[in-house]
Write a structure and sequence with these properties.
The chain contains 27 helices and 17 strands. By secondary structure, the chain is α/β, with parallel strands linked by helices. It starts with a strand and ends in a 40-residue tail after the last helix. It comes from Bondarzewia mesenterica.
């Protein structure tokens, strides 16, 4: 009897094949591996008859041949009498594409039937999971677990082909994984008792098997990218419950171990996320100043372990961290560890651990003076492991620190701690308080305490040593002396400014540009906190190379960490634009009596009148050059007119203002620039500022303010130049949207230049295309021109050229670097040529001659606008009554 479990991971197009030798009652493990991205063919084993078993083996062989790809064997409890089942299966399916074997509790005393050699005589990588009672099989296999026993040489990149793991206190028959359900079948709220030894053995053996399968067959999932996407959607800034849950399996769970908060199952966990992470301007669960610093990260076959520091201010009731505790207003900084497991390309569970005692001490909720706990020093010790002392809570070691090491050794010998006659650890622990051993220890402790007191080594600070202690020899936690390496202890309180060197490991935007690899770091030295890349020349920084490690640049790219922490230029531009908009409202209120123009026509953007916007500096060709169709003597509604039709008329010369051309021809060229700072109304500026403070700000962080300044104004001005050429000459235009879309164009450069570093790049491309189309469509709103504000095609086009030149691109290959530089050398002259050609064309008598159909890009043809013919301006012939 056989059964096929198809690959359940949609992102895996060609799944490797597995042949499972497992009983029909435990096919949940087949479903488990199918959800890991494998196509599983189950052979029912043990079988009711030899004939049916042979038939199933033959069917498995045909399946593997039809599959045509790499495959592996996973068996459970192969019997001694069925020793030829593995060779028969290999003979039917072929050894050429066999990449791995995994055996759980094979009931055989010989290893030969369980191992397979390839065509070159090398062992196929095999992992065996045995109960500790299977001693004979373990002994026969142990001879093959060293390089010398293989009779052939391994290359430096080869793993040992045979790996044997034994598990205590578990059964050999039936195989111990059968004592519990496969995780893929466990339902929310389902409870069943499993021996902790069995649970440990099942979890470890599964991860070890999966590691072998991933290494030899694939599929390979970028667990870090999957984890970053999950944290991105669950981040307190970008929180999206639906997207967060879309990164998880159908029955996930999250367990915050110290507080037992989290969720079990899809609905329960989704409810927890919605309830525990609501974000609005007035409703915070996570304090707004919360920071997470990743100290280290370990990535395995099916899980990630992050060691982190969580810091913030207790200004809110943090349900998942401190349920039921009202805000204290105090700062906290705690060590935190997250264990994150994956099944295929989905997250299956999170175990989050932190030092709750340290947190309570820092918030004043727990007295540390009478308990072996510490406050913020716990987190500081994690960040600065070599700079802060150990064992300060270990009073025995504290009191013996003033005794020379030789005396300590003699004291140990007198107490019988060393030597063959010393009592065992268990005997020492159960010794009576009045026993000779205990009395001797007490007496010795008293002598050393007296000596320490006499020497003046009594400590006022429980965590920082005195200068005298700095000169003492040091003994580590295992009591091994380092007499030639004096222990350097800080004599001043901990200074967390040095933490800036760790921010590059944080999965948040705006991290510092400093980095230190804590996995292999030497003792922390603040003078070395800045990496070499910080000293790179401006040219190297422009080339985005310098001496900055490529791997770290790729990691920063995935995390959204750029060249600088804060978008200073975006902030300055935003403040300026808001100030200018306030002046627009003041001017319109002074002229019409209301900041928002409702007469003679309503401004759909809820802002000043058209005449006021022209006077303030909107792009309006009749004010910039001589337009035969719209001479400066043409009458329009004055700024203070509120009648319909208008009864107060002013000439264009008067509306243009600013000296009225000093009696000469229109020459206000600066209207290519000023529209960037103007907005048509509240709706217009709110939409632009939202985009500017989010997406545009991130572009400045990634590019740096210098390159961003060139990009922003090059795109904004070019949008006005292009619009001045081909939009209707009688329609004013204004807004920062051209510049904004120029920066949005950089995201397209980023997407195509770093395609493989983006999460689901095809889906991202589709969404970006939809956003661009919507932005172009919004350009048909009155007062907005597709070439300049809102979805401005001109700004977008110039943004592509300037972004290609100035955006820092990571090139991992020489070919990629050459392609990028070819684009750059092409983009620079093309941008200059476009500027020169269009400015010259604008000052000709008929710019439309260069592109007669371009006017339709900013005008939707209808009967009301004469199908985009003419000037687009309504003129009046009555006299000026202003």
């Amino acid at each position: 009897m056989s059964q096929i479990f198809p690959n359940a991971v949609t992102s895996v197009s060609k799944a490797p094949a597995l042949v499972f030798l497992i009983s029909t009652e435990h096919t949940g493990w087949c479903e488990q591996l199918a959800q890991e991205g494998y196509s599983v063919f189950q052979v029912a084993y043990p079988s009711s008859s030899l004939a049916s078993l042979s038939q199933a083996i033959g069917a498995a062989g045909e399946y593997i041949k039809a599959h045509g790809g790499d495959w592996a064997i996973v068996s459970y409890g192969v019997l001694q009498d069925d020793g030829m089942i593995i060779p028969n299966l290999v003979a039917r399916a072929g050894v050429q594409r066999l990449k791995a074997l995994s055996h759980f509790n094979p009931l055989s005393e010989e290893s030969a039937p369980l191992l397979v050699r390839d065509c070159e005589g090398r062992y196929i990588p095999t992992v065996l999971h045995l109960a500790s009672v299977q001693e004979k099989l373990h002994a026969s296999l142990s001879l093959l677990t060293t390089p010398d026993s293989l009779l052939y040489e391994l290359t430096p990149s080869d793993h040992l082909p045979i790996a044997v793991f034994t598990y205590p206190m578990v059964s050999a028959s039936p195989p111990f994984p059968f004592s519990t359900k496969a995780p893929a079948l466990v339902k929310a709220g389902e409870s069943f008792s499993v021996d902790p030894y069995v649970r440990s053995a099942v979890s470890l053996s599964y991860s070890r098997t999966l590691e072998l399968l991933r290494r030899q067959l694939g599929p390979h999932f970028d667990l870090e990218r999957l984890w970053e996407m999950h944290t991105y959607y669950s981040d307190m800034i970008y929180f999206d419950p639906a997207e967060t849950m879309s990164t998880m399996v159908k029955a996930p769970y999250v367990n915050h171990v110290p507080t037992l908060t989290g969720g079990i199952g899809y609905e329960d966990l989704a409810r927890f996320y919605k309830a525990s992470f609501p974000i609005s301007s007035t409703d915070y669960v996570t304090p707004p100043d919360t920071e997470i610093i990743t100290v280290s990260r370990t990535v395995g076959a099916d899980r990630i372990i992050d060691e982190m520091i969580l810091k913030g201010t207790h200004t809110t009731e943090i349900d998942y961290l401190l349920p039921g505790i009202n805000p204290t207003g105090k700062t906290f900084e705690i060590a935190l560890v997250g264990v994150v497991a994956f099944r295929g390309d989905k997250l299956t569970f999170e175990h989050i651990y932190w030092d709750q005692a340290s947190l309570l001490v820092q918030l004043g909720l727990l007295d540390a003076t009478s308990l072996p706990v510490a406050g913020v020093e716990v987190a500081h010790k994690v960040l600065d492991p070599f700079g802060l002392p150990s064992n300060k809570l270990l009073q025995r070691l504290v009191m013996t620190s003033a005794i020379p090491l030789q005396d300590r050794s003699r004291d140990h010998e007198q107490r019988g701690d060393f030597g063959l006659d010393a009592p065992s650890g268990l005997e020492q622990r159960v010794a009576s308080p009045n026993s000779p051993t205990s009395l001797a220890r007490s007496s010795s402790l008293s002598r050393r305490l007296s000596a320490a007191t006499a020497a003046g080594t009594d400590r006022k600070d429980p965590f920082y040593a005195t200068p005298e202690e700095d000169r003492l020899s040091y003994m580590d936690e295992t009591f091994r002396p380092y007499a030639d390496e004096p222990f350097k202890v800080r004599s001043t309180p901990y200074n967390d400014k040095g933490d800036e060197s760790l921010v590059r490991n944080a999965a948040v935007y705006g991290g510092s540009n400093s980095y230190q690899d804590l996995e292999f770091a030497e003792a922390y030295d603040s003078s070395r906190a800045q990496p070499v890349a910080e000293k790179a020349s401006p040219l190297n920084r422009f080339l985005s190379d310098g001496k900055y490690p490529l791997e770290q640049r790729i990691e920063d790219k995935k995390r959204g960490i750029g060249r600088q922490k804060y978008p200073f230029l975006v902030w300055a531009l935003t403040i300026t634009m808001v100030g200018v908009f306030i002046w627009e409202l003041v001017l319109n209120s002074r002229e019409q009596g209301t900041p928002v123009s409702f007469k003679p026509v309503v401004n759909p953007m809820l802002g000043p009148s058209q005449s006021a916007l022209i006077n303030l500096g909107a792009r309006f060709p009749p004010c910039m050059k001589d337009v035969p169709e719209v001479p400066v003597t043409t009458n329009m509604a004055c700024m203070n007119d509120t009648a319909n039709p208008p009864d107060r008329l002013c000439t264009i010369r008067e509306l243009c203002g600013h000296g009225e051309f000093n009696g000469g021809e229109p020459n206000q060229w600066w209207r290519f620039i000023t529209p960037i700072f103007l907005h048509a109304g509240f709706i217009h500026i709110i939409l632009n500022m939202l985009a500017q403070l989010t997406a545009v700000a991130q572009i400045e962080r990634e590019m740096g303010s210098g390159g961003f300044f060139i990009l922003y104004f090059a795109a904004g001005i070019f949008g006005n130049v292009l619009g001045g050429n081909f939009s209707l000459v009688g329609v004013p235009s204004l807004g920062a949207s051209g510049a904004i879309f120029g920066t949005i164009a950089v995201t397209w450069v980023d997407l195509f230049a770093h395609w493989k570093y983006h999460y689901r790049p095809v889906r991202r491309l589709i969404f970006m295309t939809i956003e661009l189309v919507i932005g172009v469509a919004m350009g048909y709103i009155p007062y907005i021109d597709n070439f300049v504000p809102e979805a401005h095609l001109g700004g977008f086009a110039m943004g592509l050229l300037v972004g290609t030149t100035f955006y820092p691109v990571i090139s991992t290959t020489r070919r990629h670097k050459i392609i990028m530089w070819c684009f750059r050398f092409t983009a620079i002259p093309l941008a200059v040529i476009l500027y020169v050609v269009l400015v010259r064309n604008f000052y000709t008598s008929n710019p439309y001659a260069a592109c007669s159909g371009c006017r339709y890009l900013s005008c939707f043809p209808t009967s009301s606008n004469n199908h985009c013919q003419g000037t687009g301006l309504t003129t009046f012939t009555t006299t000026n009554t202003n």
